[in-house]
Automatic annotation (TrEMBL):
<dbReference type="GO" id="GO:0044205">
    <property type="term" value="P:'de novo' UMP biosynthetic process"/>
</dbReference>
<dbReference type="Pfam" id="PF00215">
    <property type="entry name" value="OMPdecase"/>
</dbReference>
<protein>
    <recommendedName>
        <fullName>Orotidine 5'-phosphate decarboxylase</fullName>
        <ecNumber>4.1.1.23</ecNumber>
    </recommendedName>
</protein>
<feature type="domain" description="Orotidine 5'-phosphate decarboxylase">
    <location>
        <begin position="35"/>
        <end position="102"/>
    </location>
</feature>
<dbReference type="GO" id="GO:0006207">
    <property type="term" value="P:'de novo' pyrimidine nucleobase biosynthetic process"/>
</dbReference>
<keyword id="KW-0456">Lyase</keyword>
<dbReference type="GO" id="GO:0005829">
    <property type="term" value="C:cytosol"/>
</dbReference>
<dbReference type="InterPro" id="IPR001754">
    <property type="entry name" value="OMPdeCOase_dom"/>
</dbReference>
<comment type="similarity">
    <text>Belongs to the OMP decarboxylase family.</text>
</comment>
<dbReference type="InterPro" id="IPR014732">
    <property type="entry name" value="OMPdecase"/>
</dbReference>
<comment type="pathway">
    <text>Pyrimidine metabolism; UMP biosynthesis via de novo pathway; UMP from orotate: step 2/2.</text>
</comment>
<dbReference type="GO" id="GO:0004590">
    <property type="term" value="F:orotidine-5'-phosphate decarboxylase activity"/>
</dbReference>
<dbReference type="InterPro" id="IPR011060">
    <property type="entry name" value="RibuloseP-bd_barrel"/>
</dbReference>
<feature type="binding site">
    <location>
        <position position="64"/>
    </location>
    <ligand>
        <name>substrate</name>
    </ligand>
</feature>
<feature type="binding site">
    <location>
        <position position="42"/>
    </location>
    <ligand>
        <name>substrate</name>
    </ligand>
</feature>
<keyword id="KW-0210">Decarboxylase</keyword>
<dbReference type="InterPro" id="IPR013785">
    <property type="entry name" value="Aldolase_TIM"/>
</dbReference>
Amino acid sequence: MSPHESLKATFAARAQTATHPLTAYLFRLMDLKASNLCLSADVSTARELLHLADKVGPSIVVLKTHHDVVAGWDFNPQTGTGARLAQLARKHGFLIFEDRKF
């Protein structure tokens, strides 16, 4: 069985035909970084998470987190862990995927 035709297209071409803006952005990001690397950040503290995000940020496209299992998560919307993580995502050009377990 051969792959679907859309899977043979480049990330840039797939960005052009994407129907959702987030999908198009993700494909453009993958094209820009020449990668589709998603890191599952299974760390135990907010400090470790922020350090890891800053170190690997330039090399990844998506950072997958589990905020509910990270000790020391600061919920302040301006200065907390999520805000600092968002700053790193903008700085290094990656998306944050929160994978909360319900």
